[in-house]
Amino acid sequence: MEKVYLKYGIGIAIALIAYFLLTKVLGLHQYPVLSAANAVIFGAGILLAMKTYKANKSNFKYEKGFQLGLFTGGIATILFAIFMSVYIFMIDTQFAHAILDSWGLNFNKGALIVIVSLVMMGFSTTLVLTLAFMQLLKESWNTPEGKRNTMSK
Predict the structure, then answer these.
(1) Which of 4-13, 23-32, 81-90, 122-131 is predicted least confidently?
(2) What is the pLDDT of residues 10-45, one digit of tens each?
(3) Cα-based distances in Å from 39 to 46, 48, 81, 87
(4) pLDDT at res. 60
(5) What is the model's pLDDT at position 62?
(6) Does a structural domain hold residue 108?
(7) Number of domains forming the structure of the chain
């Protein structure tokens, strides 16, 4: 399982970084609404990781799938947060102030709040997507014996 979540977690982080750099090249990186596409990238990566793991296992347990989703998204979030920290504190020091200005905040605008909110959004997106995808991928508890006790139409 470690190989799967490392592979897909790093893949998600690379895709997030590439998407950010693409928006930077296009001059759209200062619009926070475009970060909604990050959820699509997270979702695709987590779902692919879960499907890959399920295809390689004869018995797919809910706990293992849930753990896989959380670890995959957690690794991606941490790696992307490290990249954004380097970008904000060393490459483009005015980027955080531009983002915070668009939020309309009335207090000291430190760049660290952008990193903290990025990590919180990454982990919450990971949790919600993992819960949703496990509903699709979990094994059904419905058995043929259980169906005989239902009312027929």
Answers:
(1) 23-32
(2) 999 999 999 999 998 998 877 777 888 899 999 999
(3) 10, 14, 15, 21
(4) 80
(5) 85
(6) yes
(7) 1
Instruction: Annotate 95-142 with DSSP letters as a single string.
Output: HHHHHHHHHT--S---THHHHHHHHHHHHHHHHHHHHHHHHHHSPP--
Q: Which of 131, 126, 139 is nearest to 79 (CA)?
A: 126
Q: Which of 2-6, 93-97, 98-102 has the lowest mean pLDDT?
A: 98-102
Q: Which residue has the tokens 């992307």?
A: 80
Domain that holds residue 79: 2-138
Euclidean distance between CA atoms 129 and 123, whole angstroms: 10
Dist. CA 19–CA 44, nearest whole Å: 14
Q: Does 107 map to a domain?
A: yes
150 lies in a domain? no
Inside any domain, residue 151:
no
Instruction: Give the other-Cβ count within 10 Å of 53's Cβ.
Output: 22
| Residue with the two structure tokens 């709040």 | 113
